[in-house]
Amino acid sequence: MEDSWHQLQPKTGFVVRLTDRLTDESWQTLTQLYQPVIGPSAAGLFSALFWLPKRSTYKRHATLLALMGLDLAHLYAARIRLEAAGLLTTTVKTNDGLTSFVYELHAPLLPVEFFKDDLLSVQLLGAVGETFYQTLVTACTPQPVVAQDEQDITKNFLEVFHVDGQELSDLPTAITTSRERLPTAKTAPKVTSVPDFDFKLLGDILAHSFVDTQALRGQRQLIMTEHTTYGIDEVAMARYIGEAVDLATNQFDAEQFKRVIAKNFGRPTQVAAATAPAANATSANVKGNSAEQALVKVASTTAPAVFLQAIKQKNGGFVTDGEQRIIRDLVSRQLFPSVVLNLMIYHVLVDEDRPTLNKNLLDTIANDWSKANVNSAAAAIDKIRERQRTARQPRRSSKQRGVTVKETLPEWAKKPSTPVKGTKPVDQAPKLSAEQQAKLAERIAKLKDRSNTGKED
């Protein structure tokens, strides 16, 4: 089914399910951390779904539209933002031609986990700015304070409860079977390692610097995200890491790391010579096998951000900060290989001739391609062709829509300007009165008589 708000109708049914327990802290996290990222409409939709009376029974979308004061397009936009943030899972089913949706709500991440998530933290930083971001970190992750004159005398579990060692070594069947049915814990999306990046080489380079490699523990995912997005090699990566380490504390600053890379990427010299033919190797509209092969070859060997920059620079533009965040977001979600992302970028900027990447449009295309399991260049090109065919389809005529158009002509156009052969010319002069007609007849008679006699009065 097409992933579009057009499939929704006010009468379309839905039910709501809860997969997690929500606490007071969950609502605080939703408002303080998620809302700046997803927007107030999406946060409001989450609340509306949660507080619906008898939410497990079928309702129509007209109920949501009335509660939130939104139209279907804006309701759909709010829904996909919840999905992208991991707060909502949407499933659809069709029975006897009737479509219905199931909306599963997920609890927001704990603040600590939120700030550890690259995607969410980058989006929040861009939305609220660095100063307020640091304020939120401090407010949402309070550190326990223990005074110097206090002694921790808290008892542990084994000091209070008697535990049979035999039961621990051979757990009861009721425990093991129930554990198998437990859902997996919700974690941040992982970026798998790719063979063209050598972490061992990176470690060897950093070993000869002042950087404490122990401070980089837990940053493998972030490093892979930046490498995949920008195509950064091991030497440059080591340099960026060095610029993100505080010399006073020797602590690695992940946010500074992202800012350094984004700032350096904005320089024109960052586009590698090998990727410059990205736009030259292809025509404005990809036609023919040779053009497609040239495009796929470049798209397969170029990092998405670099591919984007090559197209923008050829057209005289530049990559915006928002576009960098969009690309990093798509890379980190690990939905598609780089070649598919690059073809998506090419389609939006070149085929559709758009000046910049639009997040809502990219999200719509990405959702559609993800549902269609697009994981290769060939599949991506097929989807692009399908999208182009849909765009070229003519709109329904007025007659097909049941509307009759009545054409009217001005008075002057209803009669021919010159007489048609074999017909009487139309007299355009005003009609004469009976007295005027009599005088005219008398004058004509005199003229005829004078003509016959050759006399004049």
Walk me through the structure.
Belongs to the DnaB/DnaD family. InterPro entries: DnaB/C_C, WHD_DnaB. This is Replication initiation and membrane attachment family protein. It comes from Levilactobacillus tangyuanensis. The chain is mainly α and about 450 residues long. Among the domains are: about 5-110, Arc Repressor Mutant, subunit A; about 200-265, no CATH class; about 275-390, no CATH class. About 50% of the residues lie in helices and about 5% in strands. The chain contains 21 helices and 4 strands. A 4-stranded mixed β-sheet has the order 2-1-4-3. The chain is extended, with a radius of gyration of 36 Å. The N and C termini lie far apart (about 100 Å).
Question: What are the SSEs and their pairings?
Answer:
Layout (H helix, E strand, L loop, with lengths): L12 E6 L5 H15 L1 H11 L8 E2 H8 L3 H13 L3 E8 L2 E8 L5 H6 L1 H11 L1 H11 L16 H4 L4 H5 L3 H9 L17 H9 L12 H11 L3 H10 L10 H12 L23 H12 L3 H11 L6 H13 L4 H14 L7 H13 L5 H16 L41 H20 L4
Parallel strand pairs: 1-4
Antiparallel strand pairs: 1-2, 3-4
Helix pairs in contact: 1-2, 1-6, 2-4, 6-7, 6-17, 11-13, 12-17, 15-18, 16-18, 18-20
